[in-house]
Specification:
Chains A, B: It is an enzyme of class 3 (hydrolase). Two copies of one chain form a homodimer. Chain A has helices at about 20-30, 50-60, 80-90, 115-125, 150-160, 175-185, 200-205, 220-230, 250, 270-280, 285-300; strands spanning about 1-5, 10-15, 35-40, 65-70, 70-75, 95, 130, 170, 190-195, 235-240, 310-320, 325-330, 330-335, 340-350. The first copy, chain A, is of the alpha/beta class.
């Protein structure tokens, strides 16, 4: 059995900077993907058009055959003028991170109102707002990593109501509540789902830091809701891997004082993994839409508009293969998600489409 | 400020076997405790009176000054005759593990009805039933590590109704639901609470395997319920540390294939830690009941009946001390809970009471 997918598109990926980028940027295509929607959370964050274009050039230098869609980091540095400038320069979206991980934590999600002039401009020029949809933990309010996403959803509704034409993507949804929230919103609101959240539940990261990411994988019923909406083929739900590389020493937990970095790394195996997982819950017939069509349609990025169109063919393997345990380049190394586990699909052919 | 506690009693502790026991058994008294209610989950489990007495002798050989209360492991090997024999030999309780939910629980129970003749005999001779109150995870039923305890509670109610005179202890409660369940039961049902569950929530073990234990620490509201019932001084709630030693390599997570062992180790710092935590939520005036009086009363083990009575005096330190990072004996080593963190209390005097 084989499946061919036209120019797979990953609508949420971290490509970092410096030497680690040289290791991971080529993994976009190795994992079967032609398009990378690039997160702006560098150090310092990408907050200007100029810096975003510089960053895009750096990525193109590493692999010129990937289509990089660039984003800015929502911060008080942004202005409506910068938004218009960004649009003209081909920037696609603006990413909002919850308070606590921003450089200016006062300007976090509890004060979205301060960003309304920015959102007004974004709506006007049609830039996409990408939301990391979690509120910070607060023990006094019983907010913790497992309800941080549902607790955020009122913000989504409020923003959508205030800016009904603003295209919004709720990133890396992990809960039934989030799936239902996005469904009830209008056609301007979409949702990315990672590959790993289709595989994991809380039981998988309990005592296993390598499966720990933010948002954390939730309960089995939440995973079921994610699987169901993929299986349903809902056009406003599509893949954003949130592939996030962290060196092995940052993912392991060696001492009680050392908590691990949040994030799992799926890029090098992304398309086979997506096929493997969708097959596991009977959604293989939705693979093309999930990994390419739906996201491209929402973002207005049809494959035929881009250079380097490819038809990527996956084949079900007769014997299951084990995923490589580690990727190394010079002083950088990474252990991918699913390392040492079986995967039932492989990329067998890539055809350039002219 | 200082507090003196009469013969502190830890009503749930794992003392293991072999070389690790030589390291950890002395920690019972180092941590300020005179009495250890000893879990039977060895390899193989303690399922006979004879073996329990042998094990007790092994522990006494390591430290003769601790009062060891011994338990049997609920399994199909047990008979009503063995229960009566156990009672005559001074065994105190029978521990029930659900199958597969924690360390060495492969031989745990799947259905309680088959044990009703055992419980009948236990009720008759007054042996205590110690329940690990969790059901195994089951993704199809949306049962996971965070609702495994609330899902178990109907079993508690059913057992209590069927055997109203059987003394039952719900071990290491972690949820508001469990606290409320035990409160609504009659005077024959009590509950242990660990020190670490008074400190941790799910956010603390997310990405930090060293804080991972079973049952897992739950939500902030659950921790609040545990703190509240301690603060209230409810006589059927008392300390059982569930102190569970695992070597550092088993607690760290070095690779994606290696999940860490469940359990945190509190024995060597237990009494100062309990004082530190109770003070943090305004319950220091309940310390004596929580770490000695309540449990001794429920178990009918007043301090004055035992040899080696001690008055243990804690003092609030003027400068906070850091908890030792590691305990080593020959080839064994252990990293305790709270390692490297500050603690505000220390044991300053131990007076033998004749």
């Amino acid at each position: 059995m084989s499946i061919s997918v036209e120019s797979p598109a990953d609508f949420h990926v971290h490509l970092r900077q410096g030497s680690i980028s040289k290791l991971i940027v080529p993994h976009v295509r190795q994992g079967g993907f032609n398009l990378a929607y690039v997160m702006p959370n560098l150090k310092p964050p990408i907050t200007t058009t100029e810096r975003a274009l510089e960053y895009k050039a750096e990525l193109q230098k590493i692999d010129p055959n990937v289509e990089y869609l660039m984003t800015l980091y929502l911060s008080p540095d942004l202005t409506p003028d910068e938004i218009r400038k960004a649009k003209k320069a081909g920037i696609i979206g603006v990413k909002s991170y919850p308070r606590g991980v921003t450089t200016n934590s006062d300007g976090g999600i509890e004060s979205y109102e301060t960003y309304y002039p920015i959102f007004e401009a974004m709506q006007e020029v049609d830039l996409v707002l990408n939301l990391h949809g979690e509120v910070p933990s607060d023990a006094n309010a019983n907010i913790h990593v497992l309800n941080a996403e549902p607790t955020f959803l009122p913000h989504l509704f409020k923003l959508h109501k205030a800016f009904p034409s603003l295209r919004i993507v709720l990133e890396h949804a992990t809960t039934r509540a989030a799936v239902e929230a996005v469904k009830t919103c209008g056609p301007t609101v979409a949702c990315t789902i990672t590959a790993h959240h289709l595989a994991l539940t809380v039981d998988d990261w309990a005592g296993q830091s390598w499966n720990f990411c933010k948002p954390v994988a939730k309960y089995p019923d939440d995973r079921q809701a994610l699987r169901d909406v993929v299986k349903e083929g809902h056009p406003r739900f599509f893949l954003g891997s949130d592939s996030a590389p962290h060196p092995p020493h940052a993912k392991s937990t060696s001492t009680p004082a050392h908590a691990c970095a949040a994030g799992v790394y799926t890029s090098p195996i992304l398309l086979p993994l997506a096929a493997h997982l969708l097959e596991s819950f009977g959604a293989l017939n939705q693979l093309k839409g999930f990994v390419s069509g739906h996201g491209r349609a929402f973002y207005g990025q049809p494959a035929e508009q881009h250079l380097n169109q490819r038809l990527v063919t996956l084949r079900k393997t007769s014997t299951k293969k084990l995923v490589d345990g580690e990727y190394i380049l010079e002083n950088e190394s990474l252990v991918p998600f699913w390392a040492g586990k079986e995967i039932g699909w492989e990329i067998v052919e890539v055809t350039n489409v002219d």
